[in-house]
Amino acid sequence: MLRREAVSRAREIMMEFAEGTGLWPAGQAPRRYLWTDAFAVCNFLELHRQTGNKEYKQLALQLVDQVHHVLGRHREDDKRSGWISGLGEEEGAIHPTAGGLRIGKGMKERTSREPYDERLEWDRDGQYYHYLTKWMHALNRVSRALGNPTYNRWAMELAKKAHATFTYLPKRASTKRMYWKMSIDLSRPLVPSMGQHDPLDGLITYRQLQAASERDSQSQGGLDLDSEIADMVEMCEGITWDTGDPLGIGGLLCDAHRAAQLSAEAGSDESPLLVNLLESSLRGVGNFARGSSLMLAPDERLAFRELGLSIGLRALQKLQRLVQGHPKLFGKEHSVHAKIKSLMRYQPLCEGIEKFWLDPASRDNETWKAHREINMVMLATSLAPDAFLTIS
Predict the structure, then answer these.
(1) What is the pTM of this model?
(2) Peptide bond into 25 cis (omega under 30)
């Protein structure tokens, strides 16, 4: 698909999303969901970059404000009220991420007296670490696009709070671990197991925020993430990143691209991590391509998971250009070139996934409709990915 057509389709999708979730026109009761909104912020920034239309930039900023004032506060059906950080109204508005951000699920969180139900837990509110890192990334992209360090400071405040509450040191252990899901007020774990890629996402996102902070050190109020980064480095040691989930594979490719950008910007060699991520991605996408899931009927497929892979393959294209443009870091004999070349064989999957989900017939089923908004924004990201993928 030509770039102009892809951007046009992304624009149609994002304006439908804005209207359907109460972002635009103003005055509607907004429905916010943190993961979806993180991608949406980047998409509006990209539409502004592509078209020069300031309305898209305003929609990105309006969405940030809505997320903070909806998901940074207690639910309307909660006995508690105000900012989930516990700060007063004025101070909470200055530090909207200081208490983290709710997921935005439809059901109230499980109380400490209720038994755990795995099926219901997917529908209950709380806080997810991997959603918080996506929002940190979105805030960083706004900060860079606008040249306003406030947004990156909010991201760093969120990183500080999330790290302090989601990580813990088990008894008789020397390395910290992480909870996958926490309560809205971050006082107790709701799902104690650790997400496979959470330490990786944290490590790369913290480095991204730290790099931005160092570029504008006078505006971060003395914040740094040195100790948090050190924790994540330890947690990442010895972990295998291999996954059969297309969304997870796409996330690995996006993380590889972010790691390479940070490496190129700092002039430092992060080859072991980068090679590890590419090797895991190669095994994952190879197994996925050999499977039969892309041959299933639309109502048996989860679009947002496939589109996660599609976005990752867009990141791979950019990664290839980046390493070719930095021969001092990635010389001709560097192993990343062979890994990227092998991965590039799977690029047709990207076009195929996009084409399939752009077809109205593929979206005319209950499975698409049940995940409509997350499907929409991730399809738009795949079509116009630069603001989401580019951090330097």
Answers:
(1) 0.97
(2) yes
